[in-house]
Amino acid sequence: MNPPTAIIAEDEPLLRRELRDALATVWPELSILADAGDGSQAVQALERHAPDVVFLDIQMPGLSGLDVARAASGRCHVVFVTAYDQYAVSAFERGAVDYVMKPFELSRLSLAVARVRERMASAPANLEGLLAALGERASSKRSFLRWITVAQGRSVRLIPVDDICYFQADNKYTLVVTATAQSLINKTIKELIDELDPETFLQIHRGTVVNVNAVATVNRDLRGRMSVQLKERAESLQVSAPFAHLFRQM
Question: Model pTM?
Answer without folding.
Answer: 0.59
